[in-house]
Amino acid sequence: MAEMRPVALTCGEPAGVGPEIAVKARAILGDSVPLFWLGDPRHLPDGTRYQVIASPAEATAVLPAALPVLPHPFAAPATPGKVTYANARGVVEVIARAVDYVMKGQASAICTAPIAKKVLKDGAGFSHPGHTEFLAYLARVETVVMMLASPLLRVVPATIHIPLAEVPRALTAAGLEEIIRITAAGLTRDFGIAHPRIAVAGLNPHAGEGGAMGQEDARIIAPVIEKLAAEGMAIRGPLPADTMFHPRARAAYDVAVCMYHDQALIPIKTIDFDGGVNVTLGLPFVRTSPDHGTAFDIAGKGIAEPGSLVAALRLAHEMAAARGM
């Protein structure tokens, strides 16, 4: 069997916790996940054991003795916790470079360290809402789906970074159907679930309670579920969200499709804060990310927990293997 290509780990915001948790994750994973770090070696913590490589193909030979680093020069050094806007362009370039490697088959997947979107906007004119949208743009894909996954729960928000007041207007039958179809295909292709079981949350309390608490559940959500169920999909809903996430309920489905950001993210971050992984479904390559931000307040203090990054790297490796990468 051919040796798997390595996961490309992007540096993320160099003033955040990304560089230090990359080093910690490598120490925990050893050579169990082939990977290389893409960034400026000056931004790694002092004393980091790393080795510069010239191509992704050299990464496996370096592990587990050191962190393989494919260098990308940035404009300036980095001070943990203090933003340097001159480095914003480098962060964007690293993401694009990682996509190039995976699209050319030199990397098996991408795992992205956290970015600071406002820093990228102010320092590099970054016009995308976030990582996910930029990756979709680079891959020339119109619709992607954000999944948060852990061994205990998988959730997909149908709407993401918009005000709560805008959710009912943003929620459409066509959009919800596309999200559910992409989710089902991703569970089969990337997670090896031949017949995924999908639970769909209602938008309103008690899933609208027969129209007494809102019409969207019956008017928008229910017809989509009925259509997909008639096609043979194992799908239920709309379900009252307040009873979807206890252990017995979670055992009955493989993913919960929720109607807005917090309806999806509060349960998974409560149940498995350190084990949650951000997965982008619908891309032509595997992409995962730790489910936390840059944590400027603790950057450089040596206390950042690498658990979510470790989980993200492991999942990227497993998903790539499922795709035969």
From TrEMBL:
Biological processes annotated in GO: pyridoxal phosphate biosynthetic process; pyridoxine biosynthetic process
Xref: Gene3D superfamilies: Isopropylmalate Dehydrogenase (3.40.718.10)
Cofactor note: Binds 1 divalent metal cation per subunit. Can use ions such as Zn(2+), Mg(2+) or Co(2+).
GO molecular function, one term: NAD binding
This protein's pathway: Cofactor biosynthesis; pyridoxine 5'-phosphate biosynthesis; pyridoxine 5'-phosphate from D-erythrose 4-phosphate: step 4/5
Keyword set includes Nucleotidyltransferase: no
EC number: 1.1.1.262
Catalytically driven reaction(s): 4-(phosphooxy)-L-threonine + NAD(+) = 3-amino-2-oxopropyl phosphate + CO2 + NADH
Cell location: Cytoplasm
Job description of the protein: Catalyzes the NAD(P)-dependent oxidation of 4-(phosphooxy)-L-threonine (HTP) into 2-amino-3-oxo-4-(phosphooxy)butyric acid which spontaneously decarboxylates to form 3-amino-2-oxopropyl phosphate (AHAP).
Family, per entry: Belongs to the PdxA family.
Miscellaneous comment text of the record: The active site is located at the dimer interface.
Subunit note: Homodimer.
Alphabetical list of HAMAP family matching this protein: PdxA
Name of the featured protein: 4-hydroxythreonine-4-phosphate dehydrogenase
Gene this protein is translated from: pdxA
